[in-house]
Design brief:
Layout lengths: L18 H10 L3 H14 L3 E3 L17 H6 L8 H7 L3 H5 L9 H10 L4 H4 L6 H10 L5 H12 L11 H8 L3 H11 L12 H12 L4 H9 L1 H6 L2 H8 L3 H11 L22 E6 L2 E6 L7 E3 L1 H8 L6 H38 L1 H6 L9 H8 L3 H7 L4 E4 L2 E4 L7 E2 L8 E2 H13 L9 H10 L6 H10 L5 H4 L4
Parallel strand pairs: 2-5
Antiparallel strand pairs: 1-4, 2-3, 5-6, 7-8
Helix pairs in contact: 1-18, 4-17, 8-9, 9-11, 10-11, 12-13, 15-16, 18-20, 20-21, 23-24
Length: 485
């Protein structure tokens, strides 16, 4: 068969991801903090884009009313204010050439602190010392021989956030090339530091260190830890009382003392910075109507730079390359602003649809959630499921029942008896928690008991499903929920 070259025409359709579409998709899935960072980066690279300050009336050319980007770039409006004078007026020359500009980077701050009484900003910054820093400070203040002083920093560096030593004495001796006896002395020294129990290699050793520091009143608890630790972890009061030939009341009192010890001494030094979540939308009830408001606080308001629009209008003073550059930047700025506006509209439509489909949640709380999928919302607002998925990622909404991620409202459903409407899995979890909270402390309900109670409420569920939900919520099994004291 001979090979030959031919030319042919073919008509086809294909989806092309333009740069503008890629930018819109990227902005859509950003969280609130990531969006603010993206805006800052765009402001740095695009001179035609600027942030509108509060109270500014200049540049009423809002992009929401602008024509398409290409047309906007071709026929920009002309401002009455000369651009050069506008830029010059923005600079405080008296401050720039006067006492406000100092040669020293910190002198201005100090002068300001003396003049108006405001504190020096760096003096307000504080940081809680880490566990390693706290232990090293104590080591530095302690009288140590040279060998222990060389080994201690290595051991401190191998203590985890809970305060436990994660390296053995043998491994330390082999790594540092030190005698095993010196390593053991260094470990013993660290275990005498504050907080009590730090430097232990397991839970038993941690509790024993704390019990020793308590003194004579912890003689029996220390003996229980030393000789009957396994029985203690099982709560076997009767077994320990029988072996020690003591009454159960005496052993129970020793147990009560042991449970006051702290099993994770290093936790007090973990970072306690609170990370607040700022919702992207608010849902309020006003006059028996649920109202949705987008949160735009802290988000920069963008507009086209009047200076560069005026500069582009004076085309006779620009070369071809300069004019093309300005058109490109103005076009890019318009697309960026329009993408942000489209992002806000899409978020509003998705939140509105979710709240409409989950109206029972707004009225009664999480226990009234309905089964909901991305497809349900996508069909309701005539969008693709992938778009809904991007919108609901890392977005939060404020409701009368708390702040929730939009993903929270999507969950599978379980069947009800009697042909009733399915119930959401999150609602079942709430019901399980409600039953567990009301159970007796001495006889907690087993997973099978929970199955029986839920079936009495018309919810058909398997025991393994109850176990899975309980574990997902961090609830212990019934044997460990029993209160011994």
């Amino acid at each position: 068969m001979a090979l030959e070259l031919r030319q042919s025409l073919k008509l086809s359709q294909q989806l092309v991801m333009t740069p503008q579409l890629q930018q819109a998709i990227k902005l859509l899935q950003l969280s609130r903090m990531e969006l603010q960072q993206a805006i800052r980066e765009e402001l740095e690279v695009n001179p035609a884009l600027e942030e509108e300050m509060e109270g500014s009336t200049e540049g009423e050319e809002e992009v929401a009313e602008a024509s398409p980007p290409a047309a906007e770039a071709e026929s920009p409006e002309v401002s009455d204010t000369p651009p050069s004078k506008e830029l010059i007026d923005r600079v405080d020359w008296d401050y720039y050439f006067g006492d406000g500009a100092t040669s020293s980077g910190t002198g201005g701050e100090r002068d300001r602190e003396e003049e108006d009484g405001r504190p020096y900003y760096e003096n307000l910054l504080t940081r809680k010392p880490s566990l390693a820093e706290y232990l090293q400070m104590q080591i530095n203040l302690s009288p140590l021989d040279e060998a222990v002083g060389e080994i201690a920093p290595y051991l401190i560096g191998n203590i985890d956030d809970n305060g436990y030593l994660k390296v053995s004495a043998e491994e330390t001796a082999e790594t540092l090339g030190k005698p095993l006896g010196e390593v053991e002395r260094a470990i013993a020294k660290i275990q005498t530091l504050d907080p009590a129990g730090v430097g232990a290699r397991d839970l038993r050793e941690c509790l024993m260190i704390q019990a020793r520091e308590k003194g004579e009143e912890y003689v029996l608890p220390l003996k229980i830890l030393s000789d009957h630790f396994d029985s203690f972890t099982r709560g076997d009061v009767a077994g320990i009382a029988r072996r020690l030939k003591l009454s159960r009341e005496v052993v129970r009192e020793a147990f009560q003392k042991l449970v006051t010890l702290w099993p994770k001494p290093g936790r007090a030094f973990l970072g306690d910075d609170v990370h607040y979540i700022t919702p992207d939308a608010y849902v309020f009830k006003t006059d028996d109507q649920w109202v949705i408001t987008l949160n735009e606080d802290g988000q920069p308001r963008l507009r086209l730079s009047a200076y560069y629009r005026d500069l582009l209008s004076a085309g006779e003073r620009l070369g071809k390359e300069e004019k093309e550059f300005l058109k490109q930047k103005i076009n890019s700025a318009l697309w960026f602003i329009k993408s942000i506006q489209q992002r806000q509209r899409t978020i509003y439509k998705v939140v509105e649809s979710i709240m409409k489909l989950q109206r029972d949640f707004l009225e009664a709380g999480p226990k009234s959630l309905k089964p909901l999928t991305l497809r349900d919302v996508a069909e309701d607002i005539s969008m693709h499921e992938s778009t809904v998925s991007r919108v609901t990622t890392s977005k939060y909404v404020y409701t009368p029942h708390g702040i929730f991620e939009l993903k929270f409202f999507f969950n599978s459903g379980l069947n009800r008896d009697g042909g009733e409407e399915n119930i959401a899995s999150k609602s079942v979890k709430e019901k399980i928690l409600e039953v567990i909270r009301s159970e007796g402390e001495e006889k907690p309900l087993s997973d099978q008991d929970l199955v029986r109670i839920l079936r009495g409420q018309g919810i058909r569920i398997a025991r393994r499903t109850v176990t899975k939900y309980r574990q997902a919520m961090g609830v212990l099994p019934s044997s460990k929920r029993k209160k011994l004291f």
